[in-house]
Input
Amino acid sequence: MPDNTFGARTAAALSRRGPLCVGIDPHAQLLRSWGLDDSLDGARQFCETLVAAVAGHVAFVKPQSAFFERFGSGGIALLENVIAESRRAGALVLLDVKRGDIGSTMSAYAQAYLDADSSLAVDAITASPYLGFGSLQPLFDTAQANDRGVFVLALTSNSEGGQVQLARRKDGRTVAQSIIDEAAALNAEAEPLGDIGIVMGATVPGCKESNALTLRQSTYGITHNVVHNGETAHDLSELNGPILVPGMGVQGGQPSDLRRVLGASAQWAIPSYSREIARHGPTVASVRSVAEQTAKDCADAIGR
Output
Protein backbone atom coordinates (compact mmCIF):
# COMPACT_ATOMS: atom_id res chain seq x y z
CA MET A 1 0.00 0.00 0.00
CA PRO A 2 1.57 3.34 -1.02
CA ASP A 3 2.54 5.63 1.84
CA ASN A 4 0.74 8.60 0.27
CA THR A 5 -2.81 7.25 0.46
CA PHE A 6 -5.16 9.19 2.69
CA GLY A 7 -5.45 6.23 5.05
CA ALA A 8 -1.68 5.97 5.38
CA ARG A 9 -1.31 9.74 5.93
CA THR A 10 -4.04 9.63 8.56
CA ALA A 11 -2.42 6.76 10.45
CA ALA A 12 0.93 8.58 10.38
CA ALA A 13 -0.58 11.91 11.50
CA LEU A 14 -2.46 10.33 14.42
CA SER A 15 0.71 8.55 15.53
CA ARG A 16 2.91 11.62 15.17
CA ARG A 17 0.61 14.41 16.38
CA GLY A 18 -2.02 12.62 18.45
CA PRO A 19 -5.77 12.14 17.97
CA LEU A 20 -7.27 15.59 17.60
CA CYS A 21 -9.17 17.56 14.98
CA VAL A 22 -9.70 21.27 15.59
CA GLY A 23 -12.66 22.93 13.93
CA ILE A 24 -12.18 26.31 12.27
CA ASP A 25 -15.65 27.81 12.39
CA PRO A 26 -15.79 31.61 12.08
CA HIS A 27 -19.39 32.02 13.19
CA ALA A 28 -20.81 35.19 14.67
CA GLN A 29 -20.82 34.17 18.35
CA LEU A 30 -17.18 33.13 18.36
CA LEU A 31 -16.06 36.22 16.50
CA ARG A 32 -17.83 38.47 19.00
CA SER A 33 -16.38 36.52 21.95
CA TRP A 34 -12.93 37.34 20.58
CA GLY A 35 -13.83 41.03 20.32
CA LEU A 36 -14.01 40.83 16.53
CA ASP A 37 -16.63 42.15 14.13
CA ASP A 38 -18.89 39.61 12.45
CA SER A 39 -17.39 40.48 9.10
CA LEU A 40 -14.98 39.08 6.56
CA ASP A 41 -12.13 40.98 8.22
CA GLY A 42 -13.09 39.58 11.62
CA ALA A 43 -13.27 36.08 10.18
CA ARG A 44 -9.83 36.54 8.62
CA GLN A 45 -8.27 37.53 11.94
CA PHE A 46 -9.98 34.62 13.68
CA CYS A 47 -8.81 32.08 11.12
CA GLU A 48 -5.25 33.38 10.98
CA THR A 49 -4.98 33.03 14.76
CA LEU A 50 -6.41 29.52 14.84
CA VAL A 51 -4.22 28.30 12.00
CA ALA A 52 -1.13 29.78 13.65
CA ALA A 53 -2.08 28.17 16.96
CA VAL A 54 -2.92 24.62 15.89
CA ALA A 55 -2.07 23.73 12.28
CA GLY A 56 1.55 22.98 13.09
CA HIS A 57 0.65 20.80 16.06
CA VAL A 58 -2.55 18.77 15.52
CA ALA A 59 -3.31 15.94 13.11
CA PHE A 60 -6.38 17.54 11.51
CA VAL A 61 -8.05 20.89 11.11
CA LYS A 62 -11.68 21.00 9.99
CA PRO A 63 -13.00 24.19 8.42
CA GLN A 64 -16.81 24.27 8.27
CA SER A 65 -17.58 25.47 4.77
CA ALA A 66 -20.87 27.19 5.63
CA PHE A 67 -19.18 29.73 7.90
CA PHE A 68 -16.99 30.81 5.00
CA GLU A 69 -19.68 30.67 2.33
CA ARG A 70 -21.79 33.19 4.26
CA PHE A 71 -19.23 35.88 3.35
CA GLY A 72 -19.56 35.22 -0.38
CA SER A 73 -16.57 35.21 -2.72
CA GLY A 74 -14.35 36.78 -0.07
CA GLY A 75 -15.21 33.96 2.29
CA ILE A 76 -14.29 31.34 -0.30
CA ALA A 77 -10.95 33.10 -0.87
CA LEU A 78 -10.40 33.02 2.89
CA LEU A 79 -11.22 29.29 2.94
CA GLU A 80 -8.67 28.69 0.18
CA ASN A 81 -6.07 30.48 2.28
CA VAL A 82 -6.95 28.48 5.42
CA ILE A 83 -6.58 25.25 3.45
CA ALA A 84 -3.23 26.25 1.95
CA GLU A 85 -1.72 27.57 5.19
CA SER A 86 -2.93 24.61 7.25
CA ARG A 87 -1.47 22.08 4.86
CA ARG A 88 1.76 24.06 4.66
CA ALA A 89 1.98 23.75 8.47
CA GLY A 90 1.60 19.98 8.22
CA ALA A 91 -2.02 19.45 9.26
CA LEU A 92 -4.36 17.30 7.23
CA VAL A 93 -7.39 19.35 6.18
CA LEU A 94 -10.86 17.86 6.48
CA LEU A 95 -13.47 20.14 4.93
CA ASP A 96 -16.86 19.81 6.57
CA VAL A 97 -19.25 20.25 3.63
CA LYS A 98 -21.60 17.25 4.03
CA ARG A 99 -22.28 17.13 0.30
CA GLY A 100 -24.80 14.63 -1.01
CA ASP A 101 -26.21 14.57 -4.54
CA ILE A 102 -26.27 12.44 -7.68
CA GLY A 103 -24.63 12.08 -11.07
CA SER A 104 -22.88 15.04 -12.66
CA THR A 105 -23.58 17.27 -9.65
CA MET A 106 -21.75 14.91 -7.31
CA SER A 107 -18.93 14.68 -9.84
CA ALA A 108 -18.64 18.46 -9.77
CA TYR A 109 -18.42 18.45 -5.97
CA ALA A 110 -15.72 15.81 -6.23
CA GLN A 111 -13.77 17.96 -8.67
CA ALA A 112 -14.13 21.02 -6.42
CA TYR A 113 -12.84 19.44 -3.23
CA LEU A 114 -10.87 16.30 -4.06
CA ASP A 115 -9.17 17.00 -7.40
CA ALA A 116 -5.56 18.03 -6.82
CA ASP A 117 -5.86 20.81 -9.42
CA SER A 118 -8.62 22.63 -7.50
CA SER A 119 -7.79 25.62 -5.31
CA LEU A 120 -10.25 24.16 -2.77
CA ALA A 121 -8.66 20.70 -2.76
CA VAL A 122 -8.40 19.23 0.74
CA ASP A 123 -7.27 15.92 2.19
CA ALA A 124 -10.84 14.75 2.85
CA ILE A 125 -14.44 15.92 3.01
CA THR A 126 -17.59 14.90 4.84
CA ALA A 127 -20.46 13.51 2.74
CA SER A 128 -24.10 12.55 3.26
CA PRO A 129 -25.18 9.11 1.97
CA TYR A 130 -28.92 9.69 2.28
CA LEU A 131 -29.54 9.75 -1.47
CA GLY A 132 -28.13 6.22 -1.37
CA PHE A 133 -24.58 5.16 -0.55
CA GLY A 134 -23.93 4.48 -4.24
CA SER A 135 -24.64 8.13 -5.07
CA LEU A 136 -21.27 8.95 -3.45
CA GLN A 137 -19.31 6.89 -5.99
CA PRO A 138 -17.96 9.98 -7.86
CA LEU A 139 -16.46 11.17 -4.57
CA PHE A 140 -14.88 7.78 -3.91
CA ASP A 141 -13.48 7.58 -7.46
CA THR A 142 -11.97 11.06 -7.36
CA ALA A 143 -10.65 10.52 -3.84
CA GLN A 144 -8.90 7.32 -4.90
CA ALA A 145 -7.39 8.93 -7.99
CA ASN A 146 -5.99 11.81 -5.92
CA ASP A 147 -5.07 10.04 -2.66
CA ARG A 148 -7.85 11.81 -0.75
CA GLY A 149 -10.49 10.61 1.69
CA VAL A 150 -14.23 10.77 2.35
CA PHE A 151 -15.99 10.66 5.73
CA VAL A 152 -19.55 9.37 5.35
CA LEU A 153 -22.20 10.34 7.88
CA ALA A 154 -23.24 7.19 9.75
CA LEU A 155 -24.47 8.01 13.25
CA THR A 156 -24.37 11.72 13.97
CA SER A 157 -24.48 13.57 17.28
CA ASN A 158 -27.66 15.58 16.60
CA SER A 159 -30.82 14.26 18.22
CA GLU A 160 -32.81 14.37 14.97
CA GLY A 161 -30.45 12.00 13.19
CA GLY A 162 -31.85 8.89 14.84
CA GLN A 163 -35.10 9.17 12.88
CA VAL A 164 -33.26 7.94 9.81
CA GLN A 165 -29.99 6.49 11.08
CA LEU A 166 -31.53 4.11 13.63
CA ALA A 167 -34.35 2.96 11.37
CA ARG A 168 -34.31 -0.78 10.64
CA ARG A 169 -33.88 -2.21 7.18
CA LYS A 170 -35.61 -5.39 6.06
CA ASP A 171 -32.40 -7.34 6.74
CA GLY A 172 -32.44 -6.28 10.40
CA ARG A 173 -29.57 -3.81 10.24
CA THR A 174 -29.98 -0.17 11.13
CA VAL A 175 -29.41 2.32 8.33
CA ALA A 176 -26.28 3.44 10.19
CA GLN A 177 -24.93 -0.12 10.30
CA SER A 178 -25.52 -0.54 6.59
CA ILE A 179 -23.45 2.62 5.95
CA ILE A 180 -20.67 1.32 8.18
CA ASP A 181 -20.73 -1.98 6.30
CA GLU A 182 -20.61 -0.28 2.89
CA ALA A 183 -17.60 1.78 4.00
CA ALA A 184 -15.94 -1.36 5.35
CA ALA A 185 -16.34 -3.08 1.98
CA LEU A 186 -14.46 -0.22 0.29
CA ASN A 187 -11.68 -0.39 2.89
CA ALA A 188 -11.21 -4.15 2.73
CA GLU A 189 -7.54 -5.20 2.71
CA ALA A 190 -6.25 -1.61 2.88
CA GLU A 191 -3.11 -1.18 4.98
CA PRO A 192 -2.58 0.41 7.42
CA LEU A 193 -6.00 2.04 7.03
CA GLY A 194 -8.62 2.60 4.35
CA ASP A 195 -9.47 5.96 2.80
CA ILE A 196 -13.21 5.90 3.57
CA GLY A 197 -14.09 7.02 7.06
CA ILE A 198 -17.35 7.42 8.88
CA VAL A 199 -18.79 10.11 11.12
CA MET A 200 -19.98 8.79 14.49
CA GLY A 201 -20.91 11.24 17.23
CA ALA A 202 -19.52 11.11 20.76
CA THR A 203 -23.01 11.22 22.26
CA VAL A 204 -24.50 8.17 20.49
CA PRO A 205 -25.00 4.70 22.03
CA GLY A 206 -21.83 2.67 22.43
CA CYS A 207 -20.62 0.24 19.81
CA LYS A 208 -20.81 -3.53 20.03
CA GLU A 209 -17.48 -4.95 21.15
CA SER A 210 -16.03 -7.45 18.71
CA ASN A 211 -16.51 -10.35 21.14
CA ALA A 212 -20.21 -9.69 21.71
CA LEU A 213 -22.75 -12.15 20.31
CA THR A 214 -23.59 -11.39 16.68
CA LEU A 215 -24.58 -13.21 13.52
CA ARG A 216 -22.79 -11.82 10.48
CA GLN A 217 -23.14 -13.86 7.30
CA SER A 218 -21.15 -11.44 5.15
CA THR A 219 -20.51 -7.73 4.73
CA TYR A 220 -23.89 -7.43 3.04
CA GLY A 221 -25.57 -10.23 5.01
CA ILE A 222 -27.73 -10.24 8.09
CA THR A 223 -26.49 -8.59 11.25
CA HIS A 224 -28.37 -8.87 14.52
CA ASN A 225 -27.27 -5.83 16.50
CA VAL A 226 -26.77 -6.37 20.22
CA VAL A 227 -28.93 -4.14 22.41
CA HIS A 228 -27.57 -2.80 25.70
CA ASN A 229 -29.96 -0.98 28.05
CA GLY A 230 -32.44 -0.48 25.24
CA GLU A 231 -29.88 1.14 22.93
CA THR A 232 -28.71 -0.31 19.63
CA ALA A 233 -25.00 -1.12 19.51
CA HIS A 234 -23.21 -0.89 16.17
CA ASP A 235 -20.39 -3.10 14.93
CA LEU A 236 -17.26 -1.26 13.79
CA SER A 237 -14.93 -4.23 13.86
CA GLU A 238 -14.61 -4.52 10.06
CA LEU A 239 -14.51 -0.81 9.20
CA ASN A 240 -10.72 -0.53 8.78
CA GLY A 241 -11.08 3.23 8.34
CA PRO A 242 -10.81 6.47 10.31
CA ILE A 243 -13.71 7.66 12.46
CA LEU A 244 -14.49 11.36 12.81
CA VAL A 245 -16.08 11.93 16.22
CA PRO A 246 -18.03 15.21 16.49
CA GLY A 247 -20.01 16.22 19.56
CA MET A 248 -16.92 16.66 21.75
CA GLY A 249 -16.55 19.43 24.29
CA VAL A 250 -19.36 21.97 24.33
CA GLN A 251 -21.82 19.41 22.93
CA GLY A 252 -21.16 17.07 25.84
CA GLY A 253 -18.70 14.48 24.55
CA GLN A 254 -15.67 13.70 26.72
CA PRO A 255 -12.44 11.78 26.00
CA SER A 256 -13.80 8.87 28.06
CA ASP A 257 -16.64 8.53 25.53
CA LEU A 258 -14.26 7.50 22.76
CA ARG A 259 -13.81 3.97 24.11
CA ARG A 260 -17.46 3.76 25.14
CA VAL A 261 -18.72 4.66 21.67
CA LEU A 262 -16.03 3.09 19.48
CA GLY A 263 -14.64 0.18 21.49
CA ALA A 264 -11.41 -1.23 20.04
CA SER A 265 -11.90 0.95 16.94
CA ALA A 266 -11.08 4.00 19.09
CA GLN A 267 -7.48 3.61 17.94
CA TRP A 268 -8.56 5.28 14.68
CA ALA A 269 -10.73 7.96 16.31
CA ILE A 270 -10.38 11.58 15.23
CA PRO A 271 -12.19 13.48 18.02
CA SER A 272 -13.31 16.87 16.77
CA TYR A 273 -13.42 19.97 18.96
CA SER A 274 -14.46 23.42 17.77
CA ARG A 275 -15.90 25.91 20.27
CA GLU A 276 -14.31 24.11 23.23
CA ILE A 277 -10.89 25.09 21.90
CA ALA A 278 -11.64 28.30 20.01
CA ARG A 279 -13.34 29.89 23.04
CA HIS A 280 -9.92 30.12 24.70
CA GLY A 281 -8.81 32.74 22.16
CA PRO A 282 -7.95 35.29 21.01
CA THR A 283 -4.26 34.62 21.67
CA VAL A 284 -2.24 32.00 19.81
CA ALA A 285 -0.63 30.78 23.03
CA SER A 286 -3.89 30.18 24.90
CA VAL A 287 -5.50 28.31 22.00
CA ARG A 288 -2.40 26.18 21.41
CA SER A 289 -2.12 25.29 25.09
CA VAL A 290 -5.67 23.98 25.37
CA ALA A 291 -5.34 22.13 22.03
CA GLU A 292 -2.20 20.36 23.19
CA GLN A 293 -3.80 19.37 26.50
CA THR A 294 -6.94 18.14 24.74
CA ALA A 295 -4.89 15.99 22.36
CA LYS A 296 -3.09 14.47 25.35
CA ASP A 297 -6.37 13.79 27.16
CA CYS A 298 -7.79 12.05 24.09
CA ALA A 299 -4.63 10.01 23.55
CA ASP A 300 -4.65 8.91 27.19
CA ALA A 301 -8.33 7.90 26.96
CA ILE A 302 -7.72 5.88 23.80
CA GLY A 303 -4.48 4.37 25.09
CA ARG A 304 -2.23 5.70 22.35
Summary: The CA atoms of residues 202 and 253 lie 5 Å apart. The longest helix spans residues 284-302. The radius of gyration is 19 Å.
